[in-house]
Amino acid sequence: QVQLVASGGGLVQAGGSLRLSCAASKRTFTLYPWGWFRQAPGKEREFVAAIAWTGSNTYYADSVKGRFTISRDVAKSTVYLQMNNLEEEDTAVYYCAQATKYRSRSYDLRLAAMYGDWGQGTQVTVSS
């Protein structure tokens, strides 16, 4: 199992920005798509964003589209989630994950079941 280390969370005021990072193994970094999910207290884990294994395509939940940007740096084996114009509703634990069960474009990267390797989570708290 690949070890993923997420970082960059913290406390920020509404309207502010944070950038989350997820460091991964170089050996498997470009083999599968990457995704970010989040889980707020009392709620189910939900999809936030994903990036194709080529880096050429990105996907976003409607709730974050236009505010969040997923990207990757192959040289650093790191995936990023730039979060701008944060809202209180964005408060959650954020998880990075690698879609090791993804096999073709017919698979849905918004589904947590596509992801076999998960990071430990980083807390993001947005205050009013």
List the helices and strands and how they pair.
Blueprint: E1 5-7, E2 10-13, E3 18-23, E4 34-39, E5 46-51, E6 58-60, E7 68-73, E8 78-83, E9 92-98, E10 117-118, E11 122-127
Parallel strand pairs: 2-11
Antiparallel strand pairs: 1-3, 3-8, 4-5, 4-9, 5-6, 7-8, 9-10, 9-11
Give a written overview of the molecule.
The structure is a single chain. This protein is an all-beta fold. The protein is 0% helix and 43% strand. The chain has strands at 5-7, 10-13, 18-23, 34-39, 46-51, 58-60, 68-73, 78-83, 92-98, 117-118, 122-127. The strands form two sheets. Strands 2, 4, 5, 6, 9, 10 and 11 form a seven-stranded mixed beta sheet that branches. A four-stranded antiparallel beta sheet has the order 1-3-8-7, with no helix packed on it. The radius of gyration is 14 Å and the shape is globular. The mean pLDDT is 94.
Explain briefly what this protein structure is:
With 128 residues, the protein is mainly β.
- The count of β-strands is 11
**SS content category:** mainly beta
Quaternary class: single chain
Spans of at least 5 consecutive residues whose pLDDT stays below 50 are: none
User: For the report, how would you describe the main beta sheet?
Assistant: 7 strands, mixed
**Helix-strand string:** EEEEEEEEEEE
Query: What is the percent of helical residues?
Result: under 10%
What is the terminal-to-terminal distance? Answer: 39 Å
Number of separate helices: 0
Mean pLDDT: 94
Structure keywords:
mainly beta, 11 strands
